[in-house]
Amino acid sequence: MARYPDLELYIGGQWKNAPGQLVLNPADESVLGTVPTATQADLDAALSAAADGFKKWSKTSPSKRSEIIGKAVGLMRERVEEMAVAMTLEQGKPIAQSRMEILRGCEIIEWDAAEGRRTYGRVIPGEAGMKHMVLRQPIGVVAAFSPWNFPMSSPARKVGGALAAGCSIILKASEETPAGAVQLVRAFHDAGLPPGVLNLVFGTPSEISEYLIPQNLVRLITFTGSIPVGKHLAEMAGRHMKPAIMELGGHAPVIVCADVDPVATAATAVIGKTRNAGQVCVSPTRFFVEEAIYGKFTETFADKARAVKVGDGLDPSNQMGPLANHRRIEAMEMFVADAKAKGARLLAGGERLGNRGYYFPLTVLADLPDDARAMQQEPFGPLALINPVASLDEAIEKANALPYGLAAYAFTRSARNADRLAEGVEVGNLSINNLVASIAETPFGGVKDSGYGREGGTEGLSHYTVVKNVSHLMM
Fold it and tell me: Is 389 helix (H, G, I), strand (E, B) or coil?
């Protein structure tokens, strides 16, 4: 079996070890390694390296940039098994999901690299002798902050967009799940990426963000994480007039119309809910089911939830791994206790499994009051909340009632319903009759408290560029 990799900082094309904090395996709480902590001197070195890297990379042709990026992706595809094992060891997700995440990250980077060759400007007709040109140029040094739940694909979105547009980047990845970022960066290093274009640091998140964001060299902030932290970073970026991409939390509603098969839809929903043990910002969570099929849908969902096999993600027979850390166990216990105290019915799960490893089963709560904490706050775990609604209008109203607006899902066979959903649900990503929130070609991001800006698609790549208008009077 592939071993857990050595963890190092990467600055100016050089790997560097340093003291730091322990990385634990959530399956058994054993120590996997030590992730280094960057000092202020390391951050200064990363800034200087990124500035130098930008000068070279921004002048490199898009075709050459695409070639180097493609070589890195090729290496990641060759190393998918060792990368997947490391990811499962540090984050807990089943090995099949780890493989899928790595391949998805590869697809995102590949698409960005290809699209980077098409960041076209335009010529605008003017008066005789006057030519107006609109140019798209790379914005500069990017400070990127990625979370623990997707150790490779979240950094891949940021690295892919920045590098494809011609920017350099300082990536601050998660200290709890660092191997995905280390292996991603190693592939670019081995592919011959010029020094300084991509830099990787770890450390105390608040200290790194508060140091990097005000720096004049940093021209763009991109962050994926919680709403409170995102608001703090956005405020800081605003004070220093830095544009930002904020992909923040969600509390995804799932609207199930009476015209669908409740058994088949519930089976699909359970599979979607088990992904990454529900530790996904777009995880289907608040189910609003029309009354005519509510009983059958809820019964089927609970039956299939109880059958989900939970265990070590390295065992391919397990459908759901442990939660990533003990904080999530405490949160699940709090949400369940609060819901039960307020009258909700517990239909499956609800208690930690064992006392070693962070295992918590897929948990189903039904008939929750609106003031239950799980209905108001993002659970970020394997909780499915199922409530009846009398109509589609009521379902849309409840879906929109929270300040979240990242992703939503709906199941219906009616074109009229689909049109009402597309117009009425307040989210950045709506999926109808499927649970795929986004692909490499499509923009991904939220509205309301779930953030602003987009990752993915042409819209995402555009954030890494600035628009310059050039008016030229011929002499």
Answer: strand
